[in-house]
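Box 3.1 A note on notation
Throughout this textbook, protein chains are presented in two layers. The first layer is the amino acid sequence; the second is a token string describing backbone geometry. Keep the layers aligned when reading.
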Amino acid sequence: MLTETLTLIVPASLRQELDSASQEFFVEVLERGLYYMRIERVLERYARGGMSFGAAAHQAGVSQSELARFAYAQGLEPPFGAETLAEELA
């Protein structure tokens, strides 16, 4: 895996909390944060009618059934088609 150095400016309170964190911890935080941000963004766009549910799942890099779980948690009613049904039954 290629790596790069990243420098961030953070509030002092956050810096104090992260003082003892390992590099692996930071990488995991970034990966998880980016994952959830991608899902949040595509669901916002889907809710505005800017893309289909399938396109939203594809852009987020998740299955439609996985995206549906996030949609339900946000009070959205995703379509329930053959693909989602097949994924749920698999």
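The chain is about 65% helix and 0% strand. The longest helix spans residues 23-47.
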